[in-house]
Amino acid sequence: MLEEERFDGMLLQFAQQCQGIDPLLDTVFSFLRRKTDFFTGATDDKAKQTVLKMLEKHQLLADKTNVEKRKRRDAEEAAAAERKAAAKAKRDAKKAAEASAAPAAPAPAPPKDVVEVGAGGADLDGAAPSSGGDAKDDDDDDKEPPPPGNGGVMGWGVWTQQLADLELKVPMPSTTKSRDLVVKFTKGHITIGVKGQPPILDGDLHKKVIVDDCFWTLEDAPGADGGKEVVVALQKEDKQSWWKCVVVGDPEINTQKVQPENSKLSDLDGETRMTVEKMMFDQRQKAMGKPTADEQGKQDVLEKFMKQHPEMDFSKAKFS
């Protein structure tokens, strides 16, 4: 473990309890004010210079890390494009070879006084089955859309991934507090749930993670419904492979279709993100016993119709 990482475990727990950058920094400076002479032992300029010096140092390190990540991502995208081009060239060559193949010569007509053995329907020329079906399968695979965020929408929530890490978002009711949650992860297992209730997610991980680099937070979910979500960051032990699923037994994605440039939910295009967020909204609504977006839309249409037709009696009507 690097020297700068030796306090990560303690600091991650501290950050989770603060639930935000502003509260975290406020707590740190409060400690310096109350328990040290940071503000009183030197001039105001000295304290500011010390803070700015540390800020500039780590800003430079962060910029350097981001540049390296972009270089790796560009290299991964270039390699993926080369693999895709090579696969397409192979399929095109196969189709061209099939198209240029000469048709088989027709069999000579048998004499009238000879009974044709194949007349009952047997295949006499021994022709091999056409490979057109394989080509069609390849075309079907090409038309398969990439998984959203390189992950998917599960019954327990949504997951996305980059080559080095994963992000899980598990919807929770609006009244949920951090102290109400049970979030545990080991090298090969994860559990997420509410105390006193069956876990929402509990299973063996698809691959191993670096436990010391994994953390979770409870955040406000996007949208106006007031729900919350547990956001879990998992650092892959093998940072050179894509995961097919989060836990063993979940539906698997086609890792040949991943798109490194869309590796987080926040990076998705507008239409895909709206679809994923709608699914997450529906999951939160179901968790709180409320109607989904589609169900709410139907109720609104029904209520509008009832207001427009007060002369009609709906008291005994049944709706599904």
From TrEMBL:
Under the heading InterPro entries, the entry gives: CS_dom, HSP20-like_chaperone, NudC_fam, NudC_N_dom
Q: Does the keyword ATP-binding apply?
A: no
Lineage, top-rank taxon, reads Eukaryota
Which stretches does UniProt call biased (Low complexity)?
Answer: 124-133
Q: Which Pfam families match?
A: CS, Nudc_N
Annotated Gene Ontology cellular component terms: cytoplasm
The molecular function terms in GO held by this entry are: unfolded protein binding
Q: Which UniProt keywords apply?
A: Cytoplasm, Phosphoprotein
Location(s), subcellular: Cytoplasm
**Main location per the UniProt record:** cytoplasm
rRNA-binding listed as a keyword:
no
Region Disordered, residue ranges = 63-155
Report any one BP term from Gene Ontology: protein folding
PANTHER family membership:
NUCLEAR MIGRATION PROTEIN NUDC, NUCLEAR MOVEMENT PROTEIN NUDC
Q: Which family does it belong to?
A: Belongs to the nudC family.
The name of this protein is: Nuclear migration protein nudC
- Origin species, per record, is Aureococcus anophagefferens
Give the source lineage, highest ranks first: Eukaryota, Sar, Stramenopiles, Ochrophyta, Pelagophyceae
